[in-house]
Structure formats: C-alpha cells, structure tokens
Amino acid sequence: MKILFVGDVFGSAGRRIVTEHLPHMLETHGVDLLVINGENAAGGFGLTPAIANDLFDLGAHVITTGNHVWDKREIIEWMQSVPEDSDERPRRIVRPANYVAGTPGYGWYEGTLPNGQAYAVVNLQGRVFMGSSDDPFRTADAILAQLKTKVVLVDFHAEATSEKVAMGWYLDGRVTAVLGTHTHVPTADARVLPGGTAFQTDVGMSGPYDSVIGVEKDLVLHRFLTGMPAKFEAAKGDPRMAATLITCDGARGRATAVQTFLMGE
Ligand SMILES: [Fe+2]
Ligand SMILES: [Fe+2]
Q: Which of 92, 206, 243, 265 has its CA 20 to 30 A from that of 56?
C-alpha cells in the first residue's frame, strides 16, 4: 500500500504546484491514500470550503490542518455541518485532536478505500512554543485505543523538532507514520523507525520558496528589522511541492519504505 502525504499547501502558489504534480505522482507511484495538510491553502491563512473541495477533487482522501485551521471562519460552519459518523467531505477535514473539549470539528478520521483497505488519519498539535492544548501524547494513546485499523497516519503539527522526534519514538510500532508539519522547512531525516513507523520531522511546505516560510520576504524582514507590525501576504515565487511517500503493509500497518520529494515547476 502506498500513502502520499503533501506538506502544508500555502496560498495560490501552493495550490498551483500541487495541481501540477499530483496527477502524475498519484499515477506513477500507484498511490492508494492521499492526505494533504491544507492549513495555509487560502492565501496562507486557513482553508475555505471551496479550496478544500479543490484539494478533494485532486484526490485527497483526508485534509489535515493545524493552528491556522480557523483563520477563515466559513470552514468552521462547514466542518460542523456533518455528524461524527459521516464520510462526507467536511468530515474528512480534521483539526488537531488534542484541542480542548468543545472545539468544533474532529481530530481524526477513520475510513475505507474503494479497494476495501481501512485507514485512519490522526492530526495532533505540539505544545512547545505553540498555543495551549491537551497532551498530544496521551491524546494519541486514547485515539489508538479506539481505532479498528492498523494503517494509521499521524500528522503532528508542531514547532519544536524535539517534540516531533519524541512523538515518532512514542508511536513507533503503533502507527504507520508520524509526519511533522507546521515549520514549512522539509527535514532530511525521513526514515523507518525500528518498530516499523515511518517518521520525518517536517515534510515541508508545498508553496512559494521565494519567501520566508510562505510569506513575502520583504514584509517579514521589515518586521524583524523594525519590530513594527506588517500585514503578511502570501508570496508567489519558486513554488515547490513537498511530499512524503510511504510504502506499508496494509494488513499490519507497518512501513517498509519512506521517500521524500521537493518538486519545483
Ligand atoms: Fe503551515
Ligand atoms: Fe501551522
């Protein structure tokens, strides 16, 4: 079984580059399950129902998010428009599962592919240098106790490399993959851990690399050099798609190979 995970799609440049590459990637690699992090897909900040539909139309089975999930208010109502047991598109957008009780939406999705293969996608958020949330480690334990499938992909949306590496070890042998997102810089450490869990500290951004992690670099430099507020705008130049491909055993849910991609125009 092949799983392709696409790192944070950022703005129109990110949407354009994934639209360019995904059709041939899915075909060439025989991808069964496609998961896309869409937290920055709408102008760098959040996700709208229309843009989510575009990502689903590209073949995404599940869209994961992170701290930017609520930046566009219309996504909240859309995510709340379906019950927990729905398989409709709004239910297949997940936000970090360790957000506090009462937060809209759901933190994981368990589904079945057309070939009968069951899978689950879990979204978690780190606590180091990020907003407060419940313990992502214990939240993962609680979710895994409820899942029926062994094929489980975890998008760990976190700032600190240490917290992400720790989560990889914590879940090694219990999930198919732990892939980091949020920092937008792909890391060169993708590997299969001894227990059979594919791990990468950060998949990287699918968006404009002529930027500071997606934002127009002059605006970010202005803020660093003057300390003055500036309205951030999504950059457009040098779009690249960052994605990680996992090969796994569909019955046992253990990874056998992991391969990373950073593809320009
Ligand atoms: Fe992001
Ligand atoms: Fe983020």
A: 265
